[in-house]
Amino acid sequence: MNNLGSYAQNETAGMDELNMEIRALVKSSSALNQIKENWEEQKKDLSSVLEKNRRLWTFLASAMMEESCPHTHDVKQNIVNLANYIFKRTNEVLLHPAPEKLDILITINMQIANGLSGKA
Fold first, then answer.
1. In this structure, are residues 52 and 31 in contact, taking their beta carbons and an 8 Å threshold?
2. How many CB atoms are closer than 10 A to CB 21?
3. Is 83 within 8 Å of 61 (Cβ atoms)?
4. CA 78/CA 3 separation, integer angstroms
5. Whether the Cβ atoms of residue 110 and residue 31 lie closer than 8 Å to each other
6. What is the largest CA-CA distance in the chain?
7. Contact assessment for residue 62 and residue 69, using Cβ atoms and an 8 Å cutoff
8. What is the C-alpha separation between 120 and 74, in angstroms, rounded?
9. CB 110 within 8 A of CB 32
10. Tens digits of pLDDT across the chain (120 residues)
């Protein structure tokens, strides 16, 4: 394992689930924004970054369906609805790629990360 991979593994080892979710949302936003800002050079990475974001939202939506999930019914439903929107938007971006179409995905990820961290 390289030093960076070792650092990343050590960094997340002590995190609770909430902080890992926040970190994953911010990281995904950053990757999407990097493609948006450097479209011509990085649009080749679009499908893999969108797939990672889709997997993240699949995880978040699945977590809302767990009996042990502490959130209210309304919060759970809102997260599932957002996940469905993310999936639909991801398909639209894959069918007709354009950098400006990433804005809403970036914004949603950051708003949820901020809300989870108490910075709403």
1. yes
2. 19
3. yes
4. 39
5. no
6. 44
7. no
8. 17
9. no
10. 444 444 344 444 455 788 899 999 999 999 999 999 999 999 999 999 999 999 999 999 999 999 888 888 998 999 999 999 999 999 999 999 999 999 999 999 999 999 888 854
Other CB atoms within 10 A of residue 2 CB: 7
CATH of domain 17-116: 1.20.120
For 67, which DSSP code? Answer: T
101 Cβ neighbours under 8 A, 6+ residues apart: 89, 92, 93
H helices of the chain, in order, are 3-13, 17-37, 39-42, 46-64, 73-95, 103-116
Dist CA 81 CA 4 (whole Å) = 35
Token reading at 18: 């909430």
